Amino acid sequence: MNDTPIINSPWQSKPQPKVVPAGTEAESGLTVEFTGKRAALFWLALKTGFFTILTLGFYRFWMKTRLRRWYWSAMRPGGHPLEYVGDPIEKLLGFFIAVVILTFYIGIVNLLLMFVSFSVFNSSVIGYVASFAGLIPLWFYARYRARRYVLGRTRWRGVRFGLEKGAWGYAMRALWYWFLTIISLGILWPRMTFLLEKYRTDRTFFGSAQMVQGGRWQNLLPATRPFVASLLFLGAVLLWTLRVDPVFPGGIADGAELAGALDGLVEGRIEGLEWVNPIRLILIPLGLSGLLFGAIWYVWVSKRIMANHKIGPGVQFASDLSGLRVTFIYVLGNFIAYMMLVIGVVALVLLAAFVFSDSLVFFADMPGAGAVSDLPRWVSVVLLAVLYLTFFLLWGVLYNTFVTYPLMRHMAVTTTLPIVVGLPLISQRDRDAFAEAEGFAEALDLGAAI
Amino acid sequence: MSVGFDGMGAAYFDGDSPEPREVSLHVAEGMLQIGMDNGTTLRWPVEEVRQLPDIAVKTGIVLRRASDPVARLFVTDKTLLPHLPQLTRRAPPKWCGRLAAWAVAAVAAVGLQIFVLIPLLADNLAGFIPPEGERALGEATYGQIREALDDTGLNPLEVCEAPDGVAALDALVDRLSGERDFRQQVNVSVLDHKMVNAFALPGGFVVIFRGLIDAADGPDEVAAVLAHEIGHVVSSDPTRHALRTAGSIGVLGLLFGDFAGGAAVLFLTERLISAQYSQAAETGADAFAHDVLAEANISPGALGDMFASMRAEHGDAEGVVAHFLTHPSLGERIKAARAEVDEGATYQPSMSPEEWAAVQTICD
């Protein structure tokens, strides 16, 4: 806007809409900063995770709230932090509500399904499948509700975000799109991704401004390239090693024969099996890694493409997210988290063995230990429980530090709002009173993601 | 006295528009004075100013007034903070009554479900499962147990099938069955594992471990254990238990959510709950065994002897640990079994010395 310098004049009596303090760029839109330090997040995750274990899991509502507050406040579009105003008590309340509603459904339905499965089909598999299938619509429902809750508790510059009601509509559409995806052998997957995101985005508000997901589902097709290429590669490799020029011309009867043959290979002897360039089999794990890479790429690059087509009134988003970078974060982050976990657990076991070396003697089956053997068994149970919980605590903390944190940071700094002229026209929206918070999602085990 | 602060980068958000407003900041007369460009000044009493918790970096702090849910003040000058005494004071707890009510409702719902509805349904439905269904359920579980107990991890645990031993055990079941005629329901097998244990599965599978035969002082003790497990089969305890587990594990899964992976906690809790259920079933099976043994003219005290030698080996589990084991405290059961012995009766051994030798070598 060319008239900005005049408006900024200190002698202007009335504040004008376009006055923006330092750190923001009104004319060229807004950039998003990410300001949190990894070490600070690590300690917060460790502290809250520790409390969670001490309280047998009840502190997890506080843990989740505090971690979200931290992440939200680290993301600063135009230099001003997002704010998460969710309340742990309301999460706990929502969890209780969900438990009351779901126990009857899950307990009785599971038992009846098992009964029918045993009496009619003589097997438990059908019962498990049916009990799982019955939860799928509920799962989508809970996901939408959880998103509504989180958006309803997010603010920026004092203005609330929001998501309209519509969880059952979302669940029904999700089921239908999944059905189409499955009968089209995955070809319509991008259509599902796009339409579900559009359903959510079109119901998303920032204050009074409604967002719109523009574009078409075909826009996502380029994001599938690495996955499709890996699939074709894997298909070609399988065709080559099994049909065109088989590695085992004699054929392989079953898995046991293959295992035996591999055993023989490792021990340096070949027992009667004919190999033709067995080294080619390495291409198969290569193709599978390619599939994994392609899947991560698709998930995130499709997010980028859709972000570039999200608009509000006078507001536009742009994302410069790098699929390669995200894949790198996943691979490296998981690797580091696993390594540190292994080192940490080994250190812990050694420590435990050192501290408890006296009682460890009793673990051995001592004949005639009599009543004394009762106590060590008890000690060992507690010790094992502590080890187990520590394992999960460490895993959560490391995953937050080495995967969630870099992902959030990358997402934040690659997002911009090139057009923000509509911002001054936006006003506050009403609070979304939401009795059960994300209780359903929590109870159905969807809460692991931030 | 008035103290001024650096308003550079600071912004006030009125809670209606997302437009930042430049401010000047002063603390005077117990008020935080927020001066706007248009000449108006907001006055927040210093003790009402709160800081948003868990902010990622302290370079930009967000303040709010306790009485205003939406207005926010973004400040960069940290020297302001010492003038605000109640920054971290918490809001009074909300919805305490509602929270307590729903907590009670949740506990009651889960309790009702696990201790009343699911057992009731399981007990009633167990009788309606056709024998083929029970058999399929038992076979599946049997396979899983054989695989789980195998140390090498490759093949399921061996079933011991030396013909003389199998014949001796069959003869024993025949003798125990007597008038009651449960012969057709029961299918006894021995697994080659050193554990001193035996269990019953749905569909009439009674499984004895080699360790138990090795540990027994004579054939009567094995007969007593067999009679006890047959007691479970006859009252279809294993089937009820399987149905009950299917129901309660889902409910408990809800409670723990994603806490600590859930699975292990879930398993322990399930043990704790099912222990109570099984204790009633165990006592019933003990009583059944006493009767069957007495009818077959075998000393019911043998069950007590078996428990006594188990106790010598492993010690009794009492107190907290006992809750995690499905069997009631052994001392009680030994007493109960010995009380059943009729001093005047002349009991016969359950097997001939040849038969007992065959059973002892069933795994060779």
TrEMBL record, chain B:
Residue ranges of every copy of the Peptidase M48 domain listed in the record: 170-340
Cofactor note: Binds 1 zinc ion per subunit.
UniProt KW keywords: Hydrolase, Membrane, Metal-binding, Metalloprotease, Protease, Transmembrane, Transmembrane helix, Zinc
GO molecular function: metal ion binding; metalloendopeptidase activity
InterPro entries per record: DUF7092, Mito/Outer_Membr_Metalloprot, Peptidase_M48
Entry GO terms, CC: membrane
Domain (DUF7092): residue spans on this chain: 9-56
Entry annotated with the keyword Transport: no
Transmembrane feature ranges: 99-122, 246-268
Top-rank lineage group of the source organism: Bacteria
Biological processes annotated in GO: proteolysis involved in protein catabolic process
Cofactor entry: Zn(2+)
Family: Belongs to the peptidase M48 family.
PANTHER family, A to Z: METALLOENDOPEPTIDASE OMA1, METALLOENDOPEPTIDASE OMA1, MITOCHONDRIAL
Stated name of the protein: M48 family metalloprotease
Organism: Sulfitobacter sediminilitoris
